[in-house]
């Protein structure tokens, strides 16, 4: 994943935060946004291998947090989207 994609992931989370009605969803998305921003900021100080490992790690966290249950934000293709309430 190029560094620009880390920034795009952060931007996707920002857009999802703006439409999330649930404060818990907003908090999860804010945390994910912050992780992606931190990665984007750190890119120039990391080797390609380190960066790839962090992308995988944050991607895994992103998937786990966004697919935890039916009320959580759902990650479709890695994007930040919110499920409809049950």
Q: State which percent range the strand residues make up.
A: 5-15%
Number of strands: 2
Tally of discrete structural domains: 1
Give start-end ranges of low-pLDDT stretches: 81-86
- Provide mean pLDDT, rounded: 79
Number of helices: 3
In which range does the helix fraction lie? 55-70%
Short description:
By secondary structure, the chain is mainly alpha-helical. The chain is built from 3 helices and 2 strands; from the N terminus they run αααββ.
What does this entry look like structurally?
By secondary structure, this protein is mainly alpha-helical. The chain has one domain. 65% of the residues lie in helices and 9% in strands. It contains three helices and two strands. A hairpin with a 2-residue loop joins strand 1 (73-76) and strand 2. The radius of gyration is 13 Å and the shape is elongated. The model is unreliable at 81-86 (pLDDT under 50).
